[in-house]
């Protein structure tokens, strides 16, 4: 403790007494005296704290306090002069008043300047003395600085982040198999793999990522390995990169005070690679939102490791290996929910067990949802619980607390997306809960409604997947230039779907961009009927019902609707009459979730669909087409999945080029009654892609197949009854991809296939009957061929061709057995 600290305290006390006396006597100096009294009363407790702290101050701080002591001493002398001045000496009082104002400004300047720096230095000194205590102070100080710098937005963001951590904390308290397993895997990546400098924890918001990271930091084995050199930093969405880099560098070099000065001493680029080994250190970067930000916070130094916690997936070039947080199992979910709702780990005897289980099931194992919803229902009557269950089924918040703590927290991930990507995320609320959404359906919809190309639509889907907002069902073919997207699916956690519904349902129903049914119901929503006297401005309309008859519909107008999604479960389905009032409709998706194909009625509504470009039919009996069928002049793509189609094609009268003059893509999948294709399909000159897959009774292709000069993709995947390809296949001069995989009875490739000069890819895996190919010299005419996928038995022949074609890559197919199709 310095002498000047004590002296300043004594002077301040004496000055305060004098000022109180002045305030009561001297009128001209009263204002300044009152202000000084307030300032010194705030100052005295701080000076007392410095006096009794027991910390020896630096010479520079002693110098500053000495100067302040002189100022206060002068203030005492000035105060005495004011008290002794004659009451009627007005000129003297004016002079003294000016001096008092000057003293007031000096005291105020010290409080707002050097005093603030002294306080910050005290915090840094405490950090040096005890790491844990400083961590708490640092967090509070950083929050205040961010608030001062960024305004209320930064403060709110950090507050919401704290709420998520608190919500997840219960999981750490309760423990569980999932948390222990995750902890074991992350520890192994950090401690057991020396070649991994940067590892990550990745998961959906509220899944327990930060809880897991905190458990890692508290683990005795981890702390011992790094000799307690562990630094936990929250990055957030608007980080101060220079400050964070300086903190990290100061921590690594054990010179932490430097980290609070500036970023000048942090080495850049090549200097880092020349830095030698030092003591082991672990830096945890929590809540990282950007790959570009992350790259600037990683220091590639031996013995130093970084643990990245994020809801976004980063490339392996940045994060070497990632642990994906798993959602809670059923028993863990129940324990966490009961802890929040009842204060115990199991359902109490007085609670409605069925209702509790139904609500827990709606949370789908997400820790934050279990915590927030459980707390929202605590001490509420059973009728309130029943109402909450119904609201959850509709994708609505059950109360203000639920909306603020869960929905708005999850919404942060969406608000920072660019506008198109955000709109695509919101479109996902158009599909039923727990549905495996065919990738083709999504991409078709996005292409039509957002005016983007298929490649951009797939890139958006990948971005949403990397940000943990959707799950792209893993498939090695996903993203391949010639893959069949209708066999690849997308899923979404129910909480994220509820978020999409919540954000889409804001505003009056007639004004919304999307008008959606959150779950299957026997009838259309009542608020649709109440507002049906006015046109709806929605661009996407999604209906989910059971059987619908003509009388079940009511008239609605959708002058701006571009996408209509009809989900139902029934044997018969009357198409909605309001399709007539959708002049801009570009994509129609009809999906039957029943056990057998449904019969569609009211097909006459197609008469007015002049702008329809994409049609998806699933598990329905396709109505018979004839030359009298009204042409769909703008239809580009038609997909028929699990449909009855054989009665649709009357080969003797059907003129497909007349009905579909601009058709460019046809998909027929799992249509087990398809035996032959209509001959007139060969006359559809606009056709570029023909996919006939999993049609187990297809036995013959049209002999005039070669007439489709614009055809680029021909897929005949898993058609076991198909025994030969017509020789006219050699006339498909524009063909780029031929997929005949799993055509187990196909006996040979015709010699004419060697004429396909544009062919780039052949997939003939699991074609067990093909043992001979055209000669190598003939196959070498396939100048554009880049990739062949085949079985090991025939690969030798292709290897010989590969020798003469340096750009050709021959890939032996792996044996793959999957039962995923059972869930279709």
TrEMBL record:
Does the record bear Nucleotide-binding in its keywords? yes
Q: Where is the RPW8 domain?
A: 1-149
Source domain of life is Eukaryota
State if S-adenosyl-L-methionine is listed as a keyword: no
Q: Which SUPFAM superfamilies match?
A: L domain-like, P-loop containing nucleoside triphosphate hydrolases
Tell me the GO molecular function terms. ADP binding; ATP binding
Q: Print the keywords alphabetically.
A: ATP-binding, Leucine-rich repeat, Nucleotide-binding, Plant defense, Repeat
Pfam families to which the protein is assigned, alphabetical: LRR_14, NB-ARC, RPW8
**Any GO BP annotation:** defense response
Q: Which family does the UniProt entry place this protein in?
A: Belongs to the disease resistance NB-LRR family.
Protein name listed in UniProt:
Probable disease resistance protein At4g33300
Gene it is expressed from: LOC111312643
